[in-house]
Write a structure and sequence with these properties.
Blueprint (H helix, E strand, L loop, with lengths): L1 E2 L11 E5 L1 E12 L12 E7 L6 E3 L10 E11 L5 E8 L7 E9 L9 E6 L7 E10 L5 E5 L3 E3 L2 E9 L4 H5 L4 E7 L6 E5 L3 E9 L5 E8 L14 E4 L6 E6 L9 E8 L7 E2 L5 H21 L14 E5 L3 H17 L8 E4 L50 H10 L16 E8 L12 E5 L4 E3 L4 E3 L7 E3 L2 E4 L6 H8 L7 H9 L2 H17 L8 E3 L10 H11 L5 E4 L6 E2 L7 H4 L19 E6 L20 E5 L8 H12 L11 H5 L5 E3 L9 E5 L9 E3 L2 E2 L28 H16 L2 H19 L7
Parallel strand pairs: 22-23, 22-34, 23-24, 34-36
Antiparallel strand pairs: 1-2, 2-11, 3-6, 3-10, 4-5, 4-7, 7-8, 8-30, 9-10, 11-12, 12-32, 13-16, 13-20, 14-15, 14-17, 17-18, 19-20, 21-27, 24-25, 24-33, 25-26, 26-27, 28-29, 31-33, 35-36, 37-38
Helix pairs in contact: 3-12, 7-10
Organism: Colobus angolensis palliatus
Pfam families: C2 (PF00168), cPLA2_C2 (PF18695), PLA2_B (PF01735)
Keywords: Calcium, Cytoplasm, Hydrolase, Lipid degradation, Lipid metabolism, Membrane, Metal-binding
């Protein structure tokens, strides 16, 4: 393998490699002790072979009837790239002429164990489930093909793309077709982006197929009646089959053999595709965010100098990074976050914040490009009249609420509907606001619960992408169609109101998720994470087994009834399916050992490349709160390096549970997170603000946690201002019990309830001003130590 010069856009450098392809020969020899699926006879067995890295290619042996010891001795050939993870799937089926064929045996085998030029014989067994065995031989040989140019971030690989241009000239067949049913020519190229394309005869048509260059595939074509859907002739000799590899960089013309329809000609030309990579492969921050950080640090430096009464100006590398980490909680989270941001603005501390991350309800309201002409202000983020009609709000500045009548949703709806994520860049172009970050989870649509498979997907005004794969696209291209990292079809950017349905959608919960939430406690969740961690420690991803037998269980049944029951449990009533911008990309040979991947790899499917997201045509995105009610993953992307986190928790019953789950999850992932150890008194009577840190781990940020509590607010109208007897009623905010107006299911508030929750959230931050300032001073010291050159005196 030859390493070429790095490339890619700034902030997303990828590596270019030149690597040869190899010819893999797989000889299926024999099987033993196959179980019988029928009472009256032994198995009628055949074997299916497929490699997910060789799209469109699936081989099948002949069927051997009535035997538990079939001997096939059949060889099959794959052209493979050694720099991607090649896992061969071998499946033995029992053929049935009446019902669906039963699967007897399935095994996954990592081809990296096969050494070039050496014949390897493997016996796969189904132990401990059964006694079935399968004998297979493998041989890897060099090819004379030129090396393939790969683009990779060491987790994903974009391979070379080729284009096949097809020009159909059927004008000469018009007179023949006129007296018959109208005929169509269907062209199929398995493994290509287009797969199948159809054109009517009697016209001149042009097609283009995009496919992987190193693919031993063929173009097939046949004629059919457009009205009766019957193929023109049953003889395979009348169908067109053209191998593509001999056509590279050539142009050929050929006739389509068709009964009674002469004069149909095809002109074919195959060549390398010039499409540039449109998916950014890299784990570092994009260039736009890096530029924003530089601009925002200037704003933060001025705000810190004023807030902390500093004597001198801060240099850019001395400015601490502060992030807000908000949980979900429906309209309660939206309203409370508004109050928290308002309080920070009043204290002159909002300009000290660089990142604002949220999930679910805390993503429902963000300001426009200019919150006020003089500087950031959040007081016009929303109005009470909007609360009975909840909608995602991203609006231009409105007059203060006390100076005008309340605006109804009808007045704002056109603005709301027109807002896009990329449009929020205007609010960041001078570093005037914190960078908003939104989180979602990509899950399996209908066959697994969220705890068993989930992948973090981050949305920002600059890019949308997967933390685990290091793959991102600009928000303008989210929802467009991609293949092998190239943009195939651009679709208009989705609007914010559409994205809100992804970030906060209670209906994407499946029954298994709901059952887990109803029947388990926080301790059960902690045990789940611990079990996952132990499993990964015992079987680390870096030592992926070369043979993985898929276990049969009640979640992976074979009968139609069981499959239907499984679908009932794991189906999601409403979820967002978006085109997968990772489709066609492949996993690198060493993807499991890459730190960027292993940090977020926490499920068994991570060791099975064919089961991961690049193999899926669509993304299934759901509310991230179904796993942990936290937006912490965004805080730990390389390059952000936060020194202080302001944690806003909007739970009504467990003020520390989500934070403790976050700590446990981060530590299992090797992420530096402070110790969250509230005292028994803190659990019984939580305060407005709690400080958590870990002196033993200097990389861990300081954390100020703000639970949603009514502690001193019930006795104080403002920090240090005792309520009069007439004002005591205004301090009563019902945050507990079935009668609370702030329950998650309640999406509309009375104006009085809205104002009280707003004032409570505002007060809780303002009364914690001293703790915030002290945390900022400590973060400033930590940042100074990080910026200090090695060996310099303190």
């Amino acid at each position: 393998m030859e390493s070429l010069s790095p490339g890619g856009p700034p902030g997303h450098p990828y590596q270019q490699e030149a690597s040869a392809c190899w010819q893999l020969t797989v000889r299926v020899l024999e099987a033993r002790n196959l179980r019988r699926a029928d009472l009256l006879s032994e198995a009628d067995s055949y074997v299916i072979l497929q490699l997910s890295t060789v799209p469109g290619m699936k081989f099948k042996t002949k069927t051997l009837t009535d035997t538990s010891h079939p001997v096939w001795n059949e060889a099959f050939h794959f052209l493979i790239q050694s720099q991607v993870k090649n896992v061969l799937e071998l499946s033995i089926y029992d053929e049935d002429s009446v019902t669906e064929d039963d699967i007897c045996f399935k095994v996954l085998y990592d081809i990296s164990e096969v050494l070039p030029g050496k014949l390897l014989r493997k016996t796969f067994s189904q132990s401990p489930q059964g006694e079935e065995e399968l004998d297979v031989e493998f041989l890897m040989e060099e090819t004379s093909d030129r090396p393939e140019n790969l683009i990779t971030n060491k987790v994903l690989v974009a391979r070379e793309l080729s284009c096949l241009d097809v020009h159909l000239d059927s004008a000469g067949s018009t007179s023949v077709v006129a007296d018959q049913d109208k005929l169509e020519l269907e062209l199929e190229l398995k493994g290509s982006y287009e797969d199948t394309q159809t054109s009517s005869l009697g016209t001149t048509s042009a097609f283009r197929f995009h496919y992987m260059a190193a693919l031993e595939t063929e173009l097939s074509g046949r004629l059919r009646s457009s009205t009766s859907n019957v193929w023109n002739g049953d003889n395979s000799a009348r169908h067109l089959t053209v191998p593509l590899r001999p056509l590279i960089e050539k142009e050929v013309t050929m006739d389509v053999p068709a009964q009674d329809v002469p004069g149909v000609r095809l002109q074919l030309k195959a060549e390398g595709c010039s499409k540039e990579l449109a998916v950014h492969l890299g784990f570092n921050l994009c260039a736009e965010e890096q530029a924003f950080l530089s601009r925002r640090k200037q704003v933060v430096a001025k705000a810190l100098k004023q807030a902390l009464q500093l004597d001198g100006d801060l240099q850019e590398d001395e400015v601490p990074i502060v992030g807000i980490m908000a949980t979900g909680g429906g309209a309660r989270a939206m309203t409370s976050l508004y109050g928290h941001l308002l309080a920070l603005q009043k204290l002159g501390l909002l300009d000290c914040v660089t990142y604002l991350s949220g999930i679910s309800g805390s993503t429902w309201g963000h300001g426009g490009a200019e919150w006020t002409p003089e500087g950031p202000s959040v007081r016009c983020l929303l109005t009470p009249s909007l609360v009975p009609h909840p909608a995602p709000i991203l609006v231009e500045p409105l007059p203060p609420r006390h100076s005008q009548p309340y605006l109804g949703p009808d007045a704002l709806w056109p603005q709301v509907m027109d807002q896009k994520l990329s449009g929020q860049r205007a609010a960041l172009e001078r570093g005037q606001n914190p960078l908003p970050l939104y989180l979602s989870l990509n899950v399996k649509e209908n066959n697994l619960e969220t705890l068993d498979f989930k992948e973090w997907v981050e949305f920002s005004p600059y890019e949308v992408g997967f933390l685990k794969y290091g793959a991102f696209v600009p928000p303008e291209l989210f929802g467009s169609k991609f293949f092998m990292g190239r943009l195939m079809r651009r679709i208009p950017e989705p609007r914010i109101c559409f994205l809100e349905a992804i970030w906060s959608n209670v209906f994407s919960l499946n029954l298994l998720d709901a059952w887990y939430d109803l029947t388990t406690s926080g301790e059960s969740w902690k045990q789940h994470i611990k079990d996952k961690t132990r499993s990964l420690e015992k079987e680390p991803l870096t030592s992926l087994e070369t043979s993985l037998c898929l276990e049969a269980s009640w979640l992976q049944p074979g009968t139609a009834l069981a499959q239907a029951f499984k679908g009932f449990l794991t189906g999601r009533p409403l979820h967002q399916c978006s085109p997968n911008f990772l489709q066609g990309l492949q996993l690198h040979q060493d993807y499991c050992s890459h730190k960027g991947f292993s940090t977020w790899a926490d499920c068994q499917l991570d060791s099975m490349p064919s089961q991961l997201t690049p193999q899926e045509p669509q993304l299934c995105l759901v509310d991230a709160g179904y796993f942990i009610n936290t937006s912490c993953p965004s805080m730990f992307r390389p390059g952000r390096r936060l020194n202080l986190i302001l944690s806003f928790d909007y739970s009504l019953s467990a003020p520390f549970e989500a934070l403790q789950q976050t700590e446990l999850y981060c530590r299992a992932r090797g992420l530096p997170f402070p110790r969250v150890e509230p005292s028994p008194q803190d659990h019984q009577q939580p305060r407005e603000c709690h400080l958590f840190s870990d002196p033993a781990c200097p990389e861990a940020p300081i954390l100020l946690h703000f639970p949603l509590v009514n502690a001193s607010f019930k006795d104080h109208s403002a920090p240090g201002v005792q309520r009069s007897p007439a004002e005591l009623q205004a301090g009563q905010v019902n945050l507990t019990g079935a009668t609370s107006p702030y329950a998650l299911s309640n999406m509309t508030y009375k104006e009085e309830d809205f104002e009280r929750l707003l004032q409570l959230s505002d007060y809780n931050v303002q009364t914690s001003q001293g703790a915030i300032l002290q945390a900022l001073r400590t973060a400033l010291k930590h940042r100074a130590l990080e910026a200090r050159p090695p060996g310099a005196q303190i």
